[in-house]
Specification:
Its main location: membrane. InterPro entries: Pra-immunoreactive, RDD. Helices cover about 40% and strands about 5% of the residues. It is mostly helical and about 210 residues long. It has a two-stranded antiparallel sheet.
Amino acid sequence: MTHPPQQPEQSPYGQQPGGYPQQPGYPQQPGFPQQQGYPQQQGYPQQQGYGYGYPQQPGGQQYGYPGVPGQAVVPQGFAGWGSRFVARLIDFLLFGLVPIILTFSGIDSEGRIGPLYFLGALLGLGGSLFLAWMVGTTGQSPGRKAVSIQVLKESTGQPLGFGMAFVRGLLEFINALPCFLGYLWPAWDAKKQHFTDKIVGSIVVRKI
């Protein structure tokens, strides 16, 4: 007794065995790499200081005029003429008075120069170099420290450095021309600057 040929078993979805296999998704198109999704975007690094501004200056102090490149904000204000005068007077008494006395004492009535003259000149030079070093590295001399003021470079808000502070000292004679006008200029100048300050780009501010 023969049995009728068995019909192929049909797929639950109507697909015949031996036909095209069911695709597990869309086939990869030739020439297009398979996409794995967009990578997660990395956030922008947080700025130091203000959220969308510029980094805060070292030491927590800011120097410069807002919106004006190359100049410094001075929130504590410029030093007045009176405090600058007192600071110079103190420095003169500490470093200038003795050398001047010695140099004048070293010249006799006939104009001959003695040892005291050279000693006074040597002490004066040493005092000038010491003051230039203090102002260049810290912005202060003993007199300026006593009245809490500081000499800074206007473009950076930092001390001048020894070289520029020494040049600033050499140019002091300009403040005496004419009739000591440069020493009086900070009394009405907007930035309270001497002539030498304007030449070397320095400002004198109140130290917090």
